[in-house]
Amino acid sequence: MIQLHEPRISHHFLRQASHIKAYFGNTGPRLSVGIKSHSNTGTYQMNTTAYMLALTTLASSSLAGVIAGSTYDDRSLFNADAGALNLEDFESEDLGGLMLPAAFDSGLNAGLASGAVSAFIEAGDPDNYGFFNTTDGGRKYLRFGQQVIVPGAPDMPETGSFSASFSFAELNRAFGFDLSGFQPAQAADGFNVTTLYKGQVMADFFVPSDQALFSVEFYGFIMDDAFDEIRINIPVLNSQEFSADYVAFDDVAWGAVPSPSALSILGLAGIAATRRRR
Question: By the 8 A CB rule, do 170 and 178 touch?
Fold first, then answer.
């Protein structure tokens, strides 16, 4: 455990192998790193173990190519760091079942990278699963998962974990969303995130969560390496015979965000220009 005393904190996946201690546990490869999280909480303790699924490979007992990025649980901090963002609030979409993959007018594409749950554009919370619209003056959201009606028998849940995929025509480094209906306490205490570029994994990391049922939480990510697809991997509910965890996404935001290297180049160019003027 580490004690943090910064008003702004971010989960940071360090590139330098010297700052990383890898080990194997009963859940597979893990990575112990110094973690920060952009949060509206100023002082708290955080476990510094981040689960590694496909982030990189181990070679000669060292880690190479570790991807750096930050996670946010405060949308205002995410917006401030990300800059100009695109937004999909689903308000212009028709209510009802959604055929996946689906393309929205905003430029966002949604699909399933794995799993077999249904998708809907929904309003309200007709099944009382704790789904929320978060758009000011709006009422719709994107839902994954449902109970399957079986004539003459009790409704059956859709089962298994699933990976909600969001993709874009252009490269981006920032992605954020409001999530409701999620039950991490009944599953894996969080979810896995995978970013890809042309099908190649750029980053894969675990996001711990203590989100309560019938609540909505914001999750945001700004990565050092650009991606054209991001997958939110929702685990199965362990306590309910492998039932899928039905969730709802709203106010999905994404943007390019200049890379740290580009910002450094711009900064050096500005210094050089200043010197020339002098």
Answer: no
What is the residue-wise DSSP string for 13-82?
--S-GGG-EEEEETTEEEEE----BB-S-SSEEE--EEE-SSS--EETTEE-SPPPEEEES-HHHHHHHH
Tens of pLDDT, residue by residue over 128-137, are: 999 999 999 9
Host H or E run for residue 265? helix 260-277
pLDDT in the model for residue 61: 31
- CA–CA distance, 66 with 16 (Å, rounded to integer): 8
* One-letter amino acid of 233: N
| C-beta of residue 234 within 8 angstroms of C-beta of residue 164 | yes
* DSSP 3-state of 143: strand
Q: What angle do CA 74, 207, 259 make, to 5 degrees?
A: 65
Per DSSP bridges, beta strands 162-180 and 216-234 are: antiparallel
pLDDT digits (tens, 9 = 90+) for 52-100: 333 333 333 333 334 479 999 999 999 999 999 999 999 999 999 999 9
Phi, psi of 263 (to 5 degrees): -65, -40
Q: How many CA atoms lie less than 13 Å away from 39 in the CB half-sphere?
A: 18
Is the pTM higher than 0.85?
no
Around Cβ 161, how many Cβ atoms within 10 Å?
Answer: 19
What value does the CA radius of gyration of the chain take, rounded to a whole number of Å? 20
Distances (CA, A) of 16 to 12, 63, 64, 66: 12, 9, 8, 8
Report residue 148 as tokens.
């399957």
Residues in the chain: 278
